[in-house]
């Protein structure tokens, strides 16, 4: 048997893709499946964005681009961030990458190593913990609790910092919970971090334009006190229904940016040229489709919360952002993983166990409401029947 690198034993995965594969297999066998597991908008990429990519190909944009992204796109990202968050961003610190996960891995390669600690939201996007442990660093949970609306407690985060802490990851609005962190908690966190000047922060804001009921998005870009140690993660996948385009961006501290860019040169050279022109059109073209998608998600959000709260053994608080509901299922007496499997195999409903997102996810399931209202209602009726 060939000897493989030991670090592979520390690499996790994203269960949503495993569930998707099984759901597709069952569907191919003729079983009726409703997928409320995968986290991607069920809308088409807007036509103007698609046409911009087609035009780019016809115009001959077939070659390599700068490793950090075409200048026009980096300028557009900086302008968009200033418009949304009221903060001037140097385009020279913008790095265009093939999807949000790349930013996560770049950050872990830069800050993670043996003897280091990196703090991550729990329950949180599973690649956080996977990438941390792959880097050799110790993954330290930041508990997100239902009673706090799945927002972190700044006091708890600050109490968890040690001399070995290199990086703290925050995510609002959040996957998998839909939780939104209020400004007061960010204020407390930033104040407390003044005592830890060597600790960097990565703010995952990929759902920053998906908020409901008048909630505000608080970007850590708005805190100049931490500008020299902030990594911002954002992109096009969720806002513009562009998951398959594999296009994201990040903003880096000036002294860290060259290291991130060099890693990009080593890993992927540059991002697909036509996709970058599509991203440029997304940011600078009409935004009507964004509002239409958000309106549809909001309507579905209300439906899914209402329906989930009618399932015996379930209780579900209203998510403030993203397109996920995270009901508490403790009343069923069934563990999350077992219930995930039961609902897929017996009811034909794909959902994700909360434990796929960290230890604090036990007792919960993640439902994506990036599906039609009719399918959401039908899925939950199937769950009621399955559990009866």
TrEMBL record:
It is an enzyme of class 2 (transferase). One of its GO terms (molecular function) is L-aspartate:2-oxoglutarate aminotransferase activity. It comes from the Bacteria. GO terms for biological process: amino acid metabolic process. It catalyses: L-aspartate + 2-oxoglutarate = oxaloacetate + L-glutamate. Residues 32-383 form the Aminotransferase class I/classII large domain. CDD domains: AAT_like (cd00609). Its EC number is 2.6.1.1. Pfam families: Aminotran_1_2. InterPro entries: Aminotransferase_I/II_large, AspAT/PAT-like, PyrdxlP-dep_Trfase, PyrdxlP-dep_Trfase_major, PyrdxlP-dep_Trfase_small. Its cofactor is pyridoxal 5'-phosphate. Keywords: Aminotransferase, Pyridoxal phosphate, Transferase. Belongs to the class-I pyridoxal-phosphate-dependent aminotransferase family. This is aspartate transaminase. It comes from Nisaea acidiphila. The lineage of its organism: Bacteria, Pseudomonadati, Pseudomonadota, Alphaproteobacteria, Rhodospirillales.
């Amino acid at each position: 048997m060939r000897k493989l690198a030991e670090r592979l034993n520390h690499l996790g995965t994203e269960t949503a893709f495993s569930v998707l594969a099984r759901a597709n297999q069952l569907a191919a066998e003729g079983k009726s499946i409703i997928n409320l597991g995968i986290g991607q908008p069920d809308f088409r990429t807007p036509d103007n964005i698609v046409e911009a990519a087609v035009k780019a190909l016809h115009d001959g944009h077939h070659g390599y681009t700068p490793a950090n992204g075409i200048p026009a796109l980096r300028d557009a990202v900086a302008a968009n961030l200033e418009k949304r968050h009221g903060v001037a961003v140097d385009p020279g610190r913008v790095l265009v990458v093939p999807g949000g996960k790349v930013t996560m891995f770049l950050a872990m390669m830069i800050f993670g190593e043996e003897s280091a600690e990196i703090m991550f939201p729990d329950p949180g996007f599973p690649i956080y913990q996977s990438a941390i442990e792959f880097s050799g660093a110790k993954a330290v949970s930041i508990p997100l609790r239902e009673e706090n609306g799945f927002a972190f407690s700044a006091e708890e985060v600050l109490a968890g910092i040690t001399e070995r802490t290199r990086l703290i990851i925050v995510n609002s609005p959040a996957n998998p919970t839909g939780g939104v962190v209020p400004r007061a908690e960010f204020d407390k966190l930033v104040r407390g971090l003044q005592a830890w000047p060597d600790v960097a922060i990565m703010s995952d804001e990929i759902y920053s334009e998906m908020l409901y009921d008048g909630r505000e998005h608080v970007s850590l870009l708005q805190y100049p006190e931490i500008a020299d140690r902030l990594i911002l993660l954002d992109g096009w996948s969720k806002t513009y229904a562009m998951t398959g385009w594999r296009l994201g961006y990040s903003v880096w501290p000036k002294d860290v940016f060259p290291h991130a860019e060099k890693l990009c040169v080593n890993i992927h050279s540059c991002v697909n040229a036509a996709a970058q022109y599509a991203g440029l059109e997304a940011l600078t073209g009409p935004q009507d489709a964004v509002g239409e998608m958000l309106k549809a998600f909001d309507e579905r959000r209300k439906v899914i919360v209402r329906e989930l709260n009618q399932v015996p053994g379930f209780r579900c608080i209203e998510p403030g952002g993203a397109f996920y509901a995270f009901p508490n299922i403790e009343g069923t007496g069934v563990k999350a993983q077992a219930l995930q499997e039961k609902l897929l195999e017996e009811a034909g409903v794909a959902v994700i166990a909360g434990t796929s997102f960290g230890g604090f996810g036990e007792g919960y399931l993640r439902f994506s409401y990036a599906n039609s209202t009719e399918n959401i209602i039908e899925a939950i009726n199937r769950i009621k029947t399955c559990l009866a």
